[in-house]
From TrEMBL:
It comes from Dactylosporangium maewongense. InterPro entries: UCP010219. It holds the Pfam family DUF3159. It comes from the Bacteria. The chain crosses the membrane at residues 39-58, 65-82, 102-124, 145-163, 169-193. The keyword Membrane applies. The lineage of its organism: Bacteria, Bacillati, Actinomycetota, Actinomycetes, Micromonosporales. The keyword rRNA processing does not apply. Keywords: Membrane, Transmembrane, Transmembrane helix. This is DUF3159 domain-containing protein.
Length: 221
């Protein structure tokens, strides 16, 4: 593959998005503890922290849609915790989004439109040209399973902690399972992607059309 030192981490900017989600969580727990387990104070600080991160990212040129979604998730978590009166429910929205993400990524692989291919293809300006390359399609499918596993790992840890109401441990898990886990996921999926491509393949930036008479969508995995 002729990509030099390029990797999924540099293409997708995983560190920045991962760190953004940690700040409001830290704010929530800090406020909750400082206020004598006050959900209102924790929720207020979380929303303010999320808004500050959103403004900062917008000034850096981050896509508005991604910034708004991140802030919306923080607000929803705060509202849920305030309505239920359970501090651990601040993390319920994140738990549900991880479950939905695991199902969505698995589904995208099964219908042969792996999300990793869609994301990287969009970043590289290829639209869906990568799908006409059977080898690249298979590689994206294989690497996308790593992302499914990432969400499942989070659920295996988050669900018991949420169920037992361990708020501080939930926040700790959120920090540990954000950038470190995303970094590991990016590294492993990049390794799987490279290993799945046949020798001599020109790489992600240069999809090869399927030979005449074959259909990339019907190629055996």
């Amino acid at each position: 593959m002729h990509n030099g030192d390029e990797s999924l981490a540099t293409l997708l900017g995983g560190r920045r998005a991962a760190l953004d989600s940690v700040v409001p969580v830290a704010g929530f727990v800090a406020g909750w503890l400082a206020g004598g387990r006050s959900i209102a104070l924790g929720a207020g600080i979380a929303v303010l922290a999320g808004a500050a991160v959103a403004v900062w990212r917008l000034r850096q040129g981050r896509p508005p849609a991604a910034t708004v979604v991140s802030l919306l998730l923080v607000c929803l978590g705060a509202i849920v915790a305030l309505r239920t009166g359970r501090a651990e429910d601040f993390f319920l929205v994140r738990l549900l989004t991880n479950a939905a993400s695991a199902l969505a990524w698995a589904g995208s692989i099964l219908v042969r439109w792996p999300f990793l291919g869609l994301i990287v293809g969009t970043v590289l300006g290829q639209k869906a040209r990568w799908r006409r390359d059977p080898a690249l399609l298979r590689a994206y499918q294989a690497a996308s399973w790593v992302w499914v596993c990432q969400y499942l790992v989070r659920l295996l840890i988050f669900v018991p902690l949420w169920w037992t109401g361990h708020v501080v441990w939930l926040a700790t898990a959120q920090v540990v399972l954000t950038w470190p886990l995303v970094a590991a996921c990016l590294a492993v999926s990049w390794w799987v992607l490279r290993r799945s491509l046949p020798p001599g393949h020109p790489g992600l930036r240069h999809p090869q059309a399927a030979p005449t008479g074959t259909d990339a969508g019907a190629t055996h995995q």
